[in-house]
């Protein structure tokens, strides 16, 4: 059994590279309980730290630095492994191998707002950055975009890891989820995560704006180009490697959204960075708005470091709806790497520059389509109008 070793780090940075794998003395600290267990448990190493862990794993390109939230990818880089890691950041237990957790953030330490990101990640100052303010009067109609055809988005049973990665809550998605039409090629789902605002429901936190109006929250369903690239890791740095399906979220007083609650009900279990819980089923289709036929399309970047500019953005016109109680739960339940409540984890909008925003419908149309469009436009202080 080839077991990767973990480093116990102090500031989210790997302190050294390991020359080989196997048992490494002095890495972290083993608990007394571990020392009394059988040989299988000797592969269990416990670490304790308030910052992000880093892990070294052997991949196709040799030793790689990976953020802790991608630790589960060891299963792919060490074929045949059947070991367990028990890593503690205020009691974190990760079972390996499980589903892969694709990760699109940089390896260094960063926080919101994004004022200093470009010092460590120069691409964050690029000319094709995301998010943006979508000004509908400047949106170009492009009927050739067609409509999205999604497969595998319905109810699925399995093991889906929900984790607090220090910047958001992130849910792993099965490789059977695809966008097979409405994009240049087939894109396969990898993970979804959320962005939100401050302490109360009056604090908005979507990343994309429509006509200058910010929604209450935003969900990103991250996909990679599985026709051109063999894995998420390969695609995330390559041209047209990624595609993000964006759902704007509005909060209203009233009953909870039962489908979002299947995620939000576990937030108390992932309060600390690195903590995770396994969901036995997911239903992403019902996280989308009832009408997901209309969308905006533009080319941009990741909204987190390293801000790679290879993302095809699809922003659904209709918002999904959750309750104000659910929004406030999202805003006040999990901590960041500084042990502070994780809030306002959205990036400010960036200049459009020479890019164009297109839509698969006419936002400036007349007649029936114009009346439909007027329903989708958010009004000041009224975050959307379409029930999820």
User: What separation lies between the terminal Cα atoms?
Assistant: 48 Å
**Number of helical segments with 4 or more residues:** 7
In total, the number of domains comes to 2
CATH class assignment of the largest domain? Alpha Beta
Strand content: 25-35%
Number of E strands:
21
The low-confidence runs, each spanning 5 or more residues with pLDDT under 50, are: 1-101, 366-374, 378-388
Mean pLDDT score, rounded?
76
Could you please say which CATH topology of the largest domain applies here?
Answer: Carbonic Anhydrase II
Rounded Rg: 21 Å
Coarse shape? globular
Cofactor: Zn(2+)
EC number: 4.2.1.1
GO molecular function: carbonate dehydratase activity; zinc ion binding
Function: Reversible hydration of carbon dioxide.
Structure description:
The chain has helices spanning 32-35, 74-77, 117-120, 232-235, 258-264, 324-332, 368-376; strands spanning 6-7, 54-59, 62-67, 84-85, 94-95, 133-134, 140-141, 149-151, 156-164, 169-172, 178-181, 187-196, 209-210, 213-214, 217-225, 242-252, 276-282, 295-300, 311-316, 320-323, 358-359. The protein has 388 residues and is an alpha+beta fold. The protein has two domains: 6-95, no CATH class; 117-376, Alpha carbonic anhydrase (Carbonic Anhydrase II). The strands form four sheets. Strands 7, 8, 9, 10, 11, 12, 15, 16, 17, 18, 19, 20 and 21 form a 13-stranded mixed sheet that branches. Strands 1-2-3 form a three-stranded antiparallel sheet. A hairpin with a 2-residue loop joins β13 and β14. The relative contact order is 0.17.
